[in-house]
Every structure is written in C-alpha cells, then in structure tokens.
Specification:
Distance between the termini: 113 Å
Number of domains: 1
Number of helices: 5
Radius of gyration: 24 Å
Shape: elongated
Helix content: 25-40%
CATH topology: Alpha-D-Glucose-1,6-Bisphosphate, Chain A, domain 4
Order of helices and strands: HEHHEEEEEEHH
C-alpha cells in the first residue's frame, strides 16, 4: 500500500515538474486605469519614491518596515530599499529611465523571500478624459516560479495589488487635479463689466 502511494506521489511530482517546464521563460504582469487628471499631476507621484507611501499597496502591507532612500530625490538615480515582514520581504528599486510626464522605468531586485530581478515600468498615455496609467512588471520566469504558478496564479495575486495601487493613485491625483482647478478658478480675475450703451 505504501509503495503504491509513493508511486502516485512520484508520478504527481513528475507531472507538476513536467508541466512547469512548458511555461514561458519570462513573465509579464500588467494593469491599467484611467485617471481624470493631466500627466503632469500624476507623474511626480510615480517619479518620487517618497510619494509612494501615499498610494503603493506594498507600503500598506507593513507600515513598520524599514525604508532607505538614497541617490537623487526623484527621477534617474533615485533609489529605494526596503526590509519588512513576510508579506513584502526585502529588496531595492532604482529608477533607470524617466521621461517627463510619459514614462518611468525601474530596476527591481528582490532579496527575500527569494532572489529575483525584474523591470517595473509606468507609462502615462493622454486620454480624452484624462490619462491612462499602465503599471507593468517583467522579468525572467525562474523554474521555482514556474512550479509556484502551477498552484498559485501569480498574475492574479500580484495584479490585484497593482489594481489597488492604481486605484489609490487615481484617488490622490484626481483630488489634487480638482483642488488645483478650484484654486485656479478662485484666483482668476473677475470679468470686467460690459460698458453700458448710451441712449
């Protein structure tokens, strides 16, 4: 009986490992949302790591995590390292490309729970009703990740975090845009009264 169970387990393991080998060698996780705000309002919230505290879903998973900011304040050369609980692990990011109001590209290096490297890209595309922001993460799909994907839908799990982050970014940017519009309306000079016609 035990021998039969061992054989079944061995067959299942081989099947899982075999199926894992058929998965792509690279992964891509991507989510988008439309924000009713101009690109110049949205861009600084992405291009400055210290601004991420207000909207990044990963910041909320461990508010007590250790954060280290270095390099440039924002844009290319800006660096951010974190060390937190089991939900977020430890790692670092660095902005490697920054196109004003258009795109921000980052190199991400996870140290824990497993060593991995990926590229994170945010793009801002003008829309009739504001801007579409797309959050993308790509990288090599290590074999251990392929095996995990057999049991866990990584795209769905991480994608849910991306969606939550974009939702919070949307709320912040739209409020800022509305406040700026209201302030501009208050500061605008009152229109001059039209001269009365002489009879």
């Amino acid at each position: 009986m035990l021998k039969k169970i061992a054989i079944v387990i061995a067959v299942l393991i081989v099947a899982v490992l075999g199926y894992a080998t058929t998965m792509p060698d690279n992964f891509k996780i991507e989510r988008s949302t439309t924000i009713n705000a101009p690109a110049e309002t949205i861009f600084p919230h992405i291009n400055t790591y210290k601004a991420w505290i207000a909207w990044s879903p990963f910041e909320k998973k461990d508010p007590a995590m250790k954060r280290d900011y270095s390099g440039a304040e924002s844009g290319v050369g800006s660096k951010y390292a974190w060390d937190g609980n089991s939900d977020i692990g430890a790692g670092s990011m660095e902005i490697t490309e920054s196109v004003l109001n258009v795109k921000v590209v980052m190199a991400m290096h996870f140290l824990r729970p497993m060593d991995s490297k990926s590229t994170v890209t945010f793009t801002i595309t003008p829309q009739a009703d504001g801007s579409m922001v797309t959050w993308t993460m790509t990288g090599p799909n290590a074999f251990i990740n392929k095996v995990m994907n057999v049991f866990i839908n990584i795209d769905k799990m991480v994608g849910a975090d991306f969606e939550a982050g974009l939702s919070d970014l949307k709320a912040i940017a739209e409020k800022q845009a509305a406040d700026e519009k209201a302030k501009a309306a208050q500061e605008a000079p009152a229109p001059e009264a039209a001269p009365m016609e002489q009879k």
